[in-house]
Write a structure and sequence with these properties.
The protein has helices at residues 6-9, 19-31, 37-45, 94-103, 109-112, 158-163, 174-177, and strands at residues 3-5, 72-78, 90-91, 114-119, 124-129, 138-142, 151-155, 165-171, 180-181, 190-191. The strands form 3 sheets. A 5-stranded antiparallel beta sheet has the order 3-4-5-6-7. The protein has one domain (3-172): SMI1/KNR4-like (3-Layer(aba) Sandwich). By secondary structure, the chain is α+β, with helices and mostly antiparallel strands. A hairpin with a 4-residue loop joins strand 4 and strand 5 (124-129).
């Protein structure tokens, strides 16, 4: 089984797709600041705006490799220096980032000069800084943190952060194997509801 770097698995944006530019202008209007250059390049390069549920990775759904004996699915593993457990749920589209920025008023994202870009769990949101001091830094918001700051810098930029995130193949439990199916022309497996 191979470990894959998360960054290598992201879907590239079609060079003719310019829809992200108007979305970025909307985000700039909401945060009242320029979008930092590295995260702007990230959004221009990778297609995370069209389909939030599958923009993250080509292998987001169960993706077993049948070899007659075993099947596998991919899980996200963070660099131990990040101090994170869990998985990346999805990259937020720019529209979703705007909604989250406006909805998370209790955490005062505007005064912290960060906006959300990745949802990891119900209690962890990964943000990018847009202020002079935190421009392009990847900043964790842990809403359940009680012994210190709810905000913590993870990395200098999105590319460095994602270099510390890998995908690992894991065995699929038997109770899940029986619920997997593949639609004609799909390149990923789905999980049938019980």
């Amino acid at each position: 089984m191979n470990d894959l770097n998360y960054l290598n698995e992201l879907e590239l944006r079609d060079p003719k797709d310019n829809a992200v530019e108007s979305d970025m202008q909307n985000l700039q209007a909401v945060i009242k600041s320029e979008i930092p250059p590295i995260i702007k390049l990230f959004h221009q390069t990778y297609n995370c705006e069209r389909n939030v549920s599958s923009c993250v990775i080509k292998h987001m759904h169960f993706n077993p490799k049948f070899d007659g004996i075993r099947s596998f699915f991919r899980v996200t593993v963070f660099d131990k220096n990040y101090g994170l457990d869990g998985s990346i749920d999805y990259f937020m589209s720019i529209q979703t980032s705007i909604k989250a920025f406006m909805n998370y008023t209790e955490f005062d994202l505007q005064s912290k000069q960060v906006f959300p870009i990745i949802k990891c769990s119900n209690t962890v949101i990964i943000n990018v800084g847009y202020g002079q001091e935190n421009r392009d830094k990847i900043i964790l918001l842990d809403v359940e943190e009680e012994n210190g700051s709810k905000f913590r810098v993870l990395s200098d930029n999105i590319f460095t952060f994602l270099r510390g995130v890998t995908l690992k193949d894991r065995d699929i439990p038997n109770q899940i194997k029986s619920r997997l199916y593949l639609n004609w022309n799909d390149d990923y497996w789905r999980l049938r509801d019980e």
